Amino acid sequence: MEENQDSRKPKNRVKMREQFAVERARNFMEVPYGYTPEEAMEEASRCLNCLKPTCRTGCPVSIDIPSFIKLIKEGRFIEAAWKIKEDNALPAVCGRVCPQEIQCESMCILGKKGDPVAIGNLERFVSDYERESGEIKVPDKPEPSGRKVAIIGSGPAGLSCAADLAKSGHLVTLFEALHKPGGVLIYGIPEFRLPKVIVEKEVNYIRKLGVELVVNAVIGKLYTIDELLTAHHYDACFISTGAGLPLFLGIPGENLNGIYSANEFLTRANLMKSYLFPEYDTPIKVGKRVAVVGGGNVAMDSARVALRLGSEKVHLIYRRSEDEMPARKAEIHHAHEEGIEFNVLTNPVRFIDDGKGNVAAVECIRMELEEPDASGRRRPVPVQGSEFQIGIDVAIPALGTRSNPLLIRNVPHLSLNKRGYIIADEETGMTSKPGVFAGGDILTGSATVILALGAGRKAAQGINDYLKWKFWDTKKFMN
User: Fold this and answer.
1) Which of 249, 265, 429, 467 could form a disulfide with 439 if both were Cys (CB 3.0 to 4.6 A apart)?
2) pLDDT digits (tens, 9 = 90+) for 342-364
3) Full-model pTM
């Protein structure tokens, strides 16, 4: 009897080779090496070619996952990359930093009995293959629509929206406050997770679509939204400035020297390359003993950057258990391998002065989890009398961010919620101000790259629809 075809498929996913932990903990080179063509084809062969591919429903930008994996199986790597780019303008980024394990891969049928197909690894492989081969395909430019759209912020949501609008024939200007485009991709995510040359190549692709990029442009100071819509004759505007205002602990001693917000710490290291000082003239205090407070991806990034800068001991302090950390499991695993010391069920209560205005220690208290509440989450509560101190000379709170009011507080008729985020329609991104759309973290608070990309695509469609009825030509309609 002939062996069933599915029984011959590899059962376990092909793992990506990585730098050894002891080596990578002291360099900023990318941790995983990526698949070889043979490894990619082997992993792609695990796909079951489902008649109803649930993996696609788990993708916020609705990539045709079965089709691009089928092309990889056939060795048609360039075509696989082009297939992804029909729906995702930043595949090399998403293949590296998106949480596929809770999105597309979580919906893979194979995952019910074993490892799901490594969709993210395959997306990374084909996008890298396309870039390294030089066969980057830029769609033919559509007929100009004669409409102008301003996009404020060149992070994932802004880049995604710009790409789709350019493909629709609109003149798109992307305004970026910093000197390099990419938003959180360029200033927030470390080189060893997302090499900046990758971001630059992805941005260059979007510029080739016809998008104009203006850097060092702080909208709200350089121009207001109303000036863009009137004096500069933009027909619509998309706000995608993210949520870049850091949160702090609000405990005694938090203003001591040696305490950075994660935003400042990572921006110095990533965008301004302080790890190459003095080649790059951006100093940063490298502590021998560092405490990072938080349990998300930003906390993991901060701890691992501190280690690579030369810290001898890095403590990660988190008030819940490790199982409840919101960071990706892969990042937690890498942090453990590299020697980060996890202090879970622990909460800081004050920073201690060395007598000269510098942080010398952090006093913490042990926490315990109560029984689950109605939402199913267990609330951490202090264990009385369990205070203890950890000696440090640098502390990095990584507690999340909130909306920065610099732009939006000067926009009349723009509705905000009680937390200061813009209120907009979830499907179209339309705000309370005519012609102004918004998407990404400025609506939701800190979220993932792929969710921001999805918000940018939805807003692009919303802007397209808005421009159609704004400039509706009744004579053409009658004909």
Assistant:
1) 429
2) 999 999 999 999 999 999 999 99
3) 0.91
